Model the fold of this input.
Amino acid sequence: MRKLRTWTLVAAAVVGMTGLTGCFPHLTAISMGIYTPIPCPPWVTERMQEKYCYKNDYRTAIMPPIRDGFPPPLCEDPPDDAMILRTLEQVTRGVPYIYEEFRDNIEIVT
Done:
C-alpha cells in the first residue's frame, strides 16, 4: 500500500509540473490546437528579413579584369537608398517617451 501511495504521489507531481510549464498546452490552448497564437516581438520579422531577403548587400561584386588598351570598368549600378539605409547601424530599441531614436530627416546623395 505504501509503494502504491508513493508512485501515485510521484505521478501526480510529474503531471502537475508538466502542466505548469510551457511544454504542455494549457486548457485555453487545447481548444485552438495547432492554431494557438504564439506571441512574437515585432523586431523578429525585421531581423529575419535582414538575414534572408538581403543576402547580397554584404557580398563583394566581382568586376571584369582590367586589360591593356581598354578603359577601366565602371561601377554601373550605384547602391540604392534602401541598401544604404540597411548598411547603417541599427536603431536602438529604446523605451517609448524616455529614450527613442529616429531617422526621419535623412538625405542620401549618391
Notes: The mean pLDDT is 77.
